[in-house]
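Task: encode each sequence below as structure tokens.

Item 1
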Amino acid sequence: MSTKRSSKPHKTGTPLSDDDDVIRLGLQQSSYDFIGANQFNLSSEEKSLNWKRISVWETSLSTIQQITSFVNNPKRKLVIELNVQKVRSIRIADVQLDVKWDRLNWCIDNDNEKRETYIPGCEGHCGLEGLYSNNKKLRKKIRKELADLATSSRWWLLLD
């Protein structure tokens, strides 16, 4: 049984608009002078997928409370807000970062109809792609650029 239709998200793989903002929920760090490049490492599960990307959440569709319940990792307390256009401006060699919709099919179907298993905020799920390369030096350089962008962007820590 479906409920209300959402104006977003688009189909999986559709790029977000340049003016959209996304949240990455990062791990706690020992120091917060800068955002570490490790905040943008792919998990083992993410590396095993055909479409290699990290999870981010579009800010108009998912609240911080919703995101933390989906991520469900008490060590992920670093909230990093990134502008999609600025993410896309990162281009190194033949790699350009991008942010695309990543529909959680158990939550919302291909026609944007909410499923019975719908949980508020799930429709904001997106993938940030371009962070994985078989070339380790390139991979490190890309993540460092993104970490520099994150350091100069809006970020904060969640309190217990």
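Item 2
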Amino acid sequence: MAAYHLEHDGTRCFVTWRHFSWSVLFLFFWLAIWTVGCVLLGKLVFVERQLGMLLFALPFWAGWLLVAGLIVNMLFGKTQLQLDADGFASDWSCLFVKTNKPIPLDDLRRFEIHEHRGSKGSRSYSLRVVHNEEKNANYMIPHGSDAGVWESLCEKLNGVLATLKNDPKIAEEPVGPKKPEPIVFDRNTPAKELERPPLSSWNDELDFDGFLFHKRGVFSLAGCLGSLFLCCFWNGIVSVVLLGLFGVLPSEKPIDPTTWWIAFFFLIPFELIGLALLGGFVQTLLEPFRVTKWAFRYAEAAFQPGFGRTTIFPLDGWKSLTVRLTPADNEDEDKPDTDIAEMLDELELWELAFLDRDGATLAAIGELSKSEALWMANVVLREKRTIL
């Protein structure tokens, strides 16, 4: 399936792409099972005619409608963009058409690809329309798309825009995601006097045979209360149904065996979600006792992730340190447009990596701000005698 359909004649550009994703197969399977449970809930609501049962069923029915809407959007939804002498126009269509506010040609500046980095190395991209108003327009590209294919589209759009505005510089600017260059320190680089960033949760400490970086988790009252509310709300509802299913709560009518087994299997995913919410609440309570450490001694690095098991990274033969953007960070939202480089650096997640002679990574301290990574690199260069 082509990424997009393009009609281009030099002074007009019309682009269409569909919202299809192969995850629709999983949603179909999930919706089939969910439908059985929702029909069962409908039967119970109709038979018992109780307000409490109706209120209990409403979130499940709403979830069914939400997933059904996602499936319809993946199968029939599409985005359409048009660029011509009047400016830029766009609309989203599925079972109906939603037209966005057009952008006049004089306000258009350029088109570019914007990268969104997620957890565990995931990446998604959006087509960004840069214009003179305060907030730029973003159009999400189907997940899993090749950024190079869409960069080619941006180049064509910028070519048309350059022709329409008679400004060839528009077509000459790069359209791909802007990535900061890594900062490399040879291990023989002399250390500088850099102070620990004032807002950093990391601290350094000298040991008799090495040094270490450590940080302690921070208790969040809002996070704890929010987690407690979700845990009690979800598990309270599920427990009421389970108690009724196993006959602990009084019931006027016994449940027939077929309905009992359907309800039993239908509730398993909700029980697992309840256990996950309970685990999240316990984690928020234990957060102040979680201490993450990176210890360096005897030509090795030992990483202890809070309550987890310690991992040893041999550093024999490390030749350089690199401060670079983390390959997998948790940025899910657009960064604000700003000219203040220091603010932008603190919004990115960086890492300090130890590299060998061939450039391979021996160990990497991740989830840092740029200033934290530079400070840590300076500490390593100052105390490097313990890991040489």
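Check on item 2: The radius of gyration is 28 Å. Residues 328-347 have pLDDT under 50 and may be disordered.
End of task.
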